[in-house]
Hints:
The longest helix has 20 residues, at about 80-100. The two termini are about 30 Å apart. This protein has a 4-stranded parallel sheet with strand order 7-6-8-9, sandwiched between helices. A 3-stranded parallel sheet has the order 2-1-3, with helices on both faces. A 3-stranded antiparallel sheet has the order 10-11-12, with no helix packed on it. The chain contains 14 helices and 12 strands. It is of the alpha/beta class. It has 3 domains: about 5-45, no CATH class; about 70-185 and about 320-375, Response regulator (Rossmann fold, 3-Layer(aba) Sandwich); about 190-315 and about 400-430, 3-Layer(aba) Sandwich (Rossmann fold), CATH 3.40.50. α7 runs parallel beside α8 (about 215-230) and α9 crosses α10. About 40% of the residues lie in helices and about 15% in strands.
Amino acid sequence: MRNRNDGPSRLVAEILADRRSRREVVQRAAALGLGAPLVAAALTHQRQGAAGAAQNATPGAAPTGEPIAIGAAISTTGSNGRTGLYQQEAYLLWEEQKNASGGLLGRPVRMVLYDDQSDPATGARLYERLLTEDQVDLILGPYSSSVTQAVAQVTERAGQPMLAAGASASDIWERGYQYVFGVYSVAEDYFKSIIVDIAPEQGYKTAAIIYEDTLFPTSTANGAAAHCQTAGIEVVVNEKYPAKATDVSSVLTRVREANPDMLIGGSYLPDAVLITRQSKELGVNAKLFAFSVGAAQPDFVESLGADADYVLGPSMWEPQIETPGNAEFVAAYKAKFNRDPDYHSAAGYSACQVLEAAVTQVGAIELDPIRDALRTLEMPTVLPGKYQVDENGKMIGHIPLTVQWQGGQKVIVTPQDFAEGGLQLPTPPWDQRG
């Protein structure tokens, strides 16, 4: 495993902690191949005395004037309510920190938040309300790709830039939108490392792919199938199940009959838990289980206990990684909400960091200049990698992680630069577990 202390994340952290001179920074960055925009953004924060892009609520001049209203509707009830709440909490933490440290452009920040109940049509209506009735100055994205896709049509017509803090289906960035910007990796690549790197090393040759019949899970499943083709892995089951399903036993019976090496689930938290429970009940004994979204959340092991062990999943962030200001973010989040953040919290917070940087660069609430700044910004956030989007607004700078539950603990297993331990595979049959 490579020493991360010599990597870009460590260098940026040292820039922000003011432990290197400008000359040392430039020389070290050149040796590492670290992009000039990323170094410049970090040096700007260093000169301003910020630690990790305004992570700490350092007291400053009290903000004055009319508040800058920032609107969002997020799933805090409905099928995705437990997940969306993490994202909303991150927005509220950033709001509190900004108002304690001088505000945005010297003005206070006021979040205007609604619950879309995990429903795309409701989400679209609420963003119409935010823009027309509440007349917010800026907006942040909702949770889930399905809701974001519906909301994007509203914000695009209004010419309102939106950081999609809770969405990753690449279809969103294939529609020619000019005002929608990704925050983390696209859904189609969620299982890439598991299929392309891990499975061949384990000698796995077959896979079953099952997924909820909504936008994001379908996108992860399509990506998984494409990566299987690349890796020479035969897909023996490729089947969807209804949204908000409470029973997937018929699909899992077909998986059991096919006896694949891997079971890959395009899922949210509720169905990831459901699939695991019913796999145990039905004796589905794949050598590798992997689920999108749900498997990386603390709620997964809280719901399943020891049955969560051996399950893998993609994660966009983990609390222990070394990114600028991450430790401060985790500590502040736990202090405010009395629970650990998950990667949806970090994604929401990252979106706030990027929005702040764009507004500060423009120096005013001017929507088209802010959009243009979001197109060209390259900067570190609490997420691994950096914020950088392509010409369509799709995220290209983020580094996704893969985690595995081992003895009730979540362990990063890929990529190598972030890995904490080795894989525990194959998964034992259910009737042979302790």
